[in-house]
Amino acid sequence: MTDHTDPGTRLGLTILGGYLGAGKTTWARHQLHLGAFGPGVHVLVNEAAHAGVDDQLLPGPAQDVTLLAGGCACCIGLPRLIASLRDLCDRRSAGRHDLGHILLETSGLADPGAIARALAADPVLTRHLRITAIITLVDAQNGLDQLARDARFQAQVAAADRLILTKTETAPPRDLATLCAALSRLNPAVPPEAAHLGQPHPLPDLPPPGPLPLLADGVLDLTLVELDLPPVNWTRFALWLSALLHLRGEGLVRVKGLIPGPDGTILLQAVHRHVQPPEILPPQDGPGHIVLFGQGLDAATLTRALQRFATA
Amino acid sequence: MCMACGHPQAPGHWTEAGAQSPGARLRARAEAAGVLDRLLRPLGLRVDDCHPVPGYRLAHVTGAVLIVQTPEDLWQGVESLLGRPYDPLHD
């Protein structure tokens, strides 16, 4: 295990980046479970949305979790990130020696390189923190498409000290080879690794890559919509979502949310048309809430449509 | 999800995550069929629960009939019977 602590000097910070739905939280919670960042890890979870989902997945007494919601930590959310990091550094300076490492899980649209540059330019943090690694997770199923559609993903790849491919088991070998070749073009110093549900997983023997994708020269115009769900049971909600994904899944980059169910709160996660098996969390108070990232989304239209399914 | 560090996964198809017992799944399927029937009937489609066989039966006014298993198959079937996709935001 890597020694992430730097006793007496600067506190280690790992920046975990990756595009929407790459599997950052899945990877992080398994690594935390294994103790990969050493004892006393404080996890900062950055969400572009105002309500957190990912922070609900990192429970447990092994680490503290702080949610930084309402903006990417590389731009709108940067002041809050810096304030949180300064607070952690102050607590450590004041004698809290149980704080051994910080793990920052960025939002799926954030540029970890921009975060690293901002932290290096901060006169306080640069004396108290050292960035031990920028880790970018890459969705092997959708990575080629993301490179071709959104320059934000290219920036995440270029900034990485480690590139970890996820979902390789379901990616066609030739696409996987092409993706690895494209990643090596963008970040030649970092050989891609792979992980399955947070555990290291060897890359298969790959065929020769296909033609490399034309890289997007701009950012994809994505709309973030957050919906507090009207009273609707899971059956009707799932019908509505399945219809939405069938017709508009191509433009729906990410859907995640917490929906009340009869046996607990249901955690929903989808990337385009692929819906992960939902997880059942302990019951939570309040209405359901979902976050959608996609093209051409309108909150009022989505809510009206869901109301129709809820009352039909 | 890793069984060591995650939460329990709902078994079965993701749309059945709100119904954990066999009885709840039957009730959910019947409710879904009713909702679909009321939404799609104005477009010339009838939807029935195929109970006791798992699935939904789609019947178009032209007489064409399809049996589908999951909501995802269902929307594909609706599309093929209507000749266009169902738009949940505007239909």
Write up what this structure looks like.
The complex is a heterodimer of chains A (312) and B (91). Chain A is of the alpha/beta class and 312 residues long. Chain A folds into 2 domains: 11-200, Rossmann fold (3-Layer(aba) Sandwich), CATH 3.40.50; 223-311, 2-Layer Sandwich (Hypothetical Protein Yjia, Chain: A,domain 2), CATH 3.30.1220. Helix content of chain A is 31%, strand content 26%. In chain A, the strands form 2 sheets. An 8-stranded mixed beta sheet of chain A has the order 3-2-4-1-5-6-7-8, sandwiched between helices. Chain B is α+β, with helices and mostly antiparallel strands. Chain B has a domain at 21-82. Chain B has helices spanning 22-40, 71-82; strands at residues 45-49, 56-60, 65-68.
Set down the secondary structure blueprint.
The complex is a heterodimer of chains A (312) and B (91).
Chain A: E1 11-18, H1 24-34, E2 41-46, E3 63-68, H2 78-93, E4 101-105, H3 112-121, H4 125-128, E5 129-139, H5 143-149, H6 151-158, E6 162-166, H7 173-186, E7 193-196, E8 199-200, E9 223-228, H8 234-248, E10 252-261, E11 264-271, E12 274-275, E13 279-281, E14 289-294, H9 299-311
Parallel strand pairs in A: 1-4, 1-5, 2-3, 2-4, 5-6, 6-7
Antiparallel strand pairs in A: 7-8, 9-14, 10-11, 10-14, 11-12, 11-13
Helix pairs in contact in A: 8-9
Chain B: H1 22-40, E1 45-49, E2 56-60, E3 65-68, H2 71-82
Antiparallel strand pairs in B: 1-2, 2-3
